[in-house]
Amino acid sequence: MIGKRADRREGEPWALDQLLRDMDTCGISDAMVTHALSRDYDPAAGNLEISSIVSAQPRLHGCWAILPPSGGETPEGFIWEMLAKGVVAAVAYPRAHNYSLSEWSMGPLLSALERFRIPLLLPFGQCTWEEVERLCGEHVYLPLIVTGVNYRQLRFLLPLWEKYRNLFVDLSWFSVHDGLSYIAGQGLIGQVLFGTNYPLYEPGAAVTMVTYANIKGEERQQVAGGSLRRILGGIRRNRP
Questions:
Q1: What domains, with CATH codes, occur in the chain?
Q2: What is the mean pLDDT of each run of 10 residues along the chain (240 residues)?
Q3: 198, 233 in Cβ contact below 8 A?
């Protein structure tokens, strides 16, 4: 996330140059980014701001916040605008923005994201596992990435992964002791994506988890970027 968060801490990095510097320090080549305005003030304003930033930064890839369709805007029109501005993912804050992820509210937009295979990021705490299960079942071709999942959630994830391979999590808070090794042993390493939740967390923590995980080299490459690149490579940029 770029920009000053409403709940930022003293000395917390928030500016573009700080992000790029920290990426260089940690050996991170690319990042998917959203703007603090999108979560804390106005999604539309934040979306435009992040698109302006990433247009001049080939290492950064925009992520737009979504709301229930309103005011005559069609879901497909919103998707085409995203694609035209080089946006590669959507993020939902249903608790913070006071809306439901149910079909009667978000169904048309979720279906449009699914048709175009655009991944949806859903921060942990903005949803329940019951909602995640329903979304995965109702939109089986929608890549759903739950971010900021902590180590206590593995008992929820494992039975969900038995049913749904469109469900992914990021590494930002997934500090399970030898967790990546266990997940790899279950044949599920492709469901775990590198992520930092910057600037809330130090990016070095996620880098360390990948670097020292007891997994094979090709599995490390999957986590470090291969799986996310595969997801983003599946985005349909023409009409389905």
A1: 16-233 (3.20.20.140)
A2: 92 94 97 97 96 96 94 86 95 97 96 97 96 98 96 92 97 86 95 96 93 96 97 88
A3: no
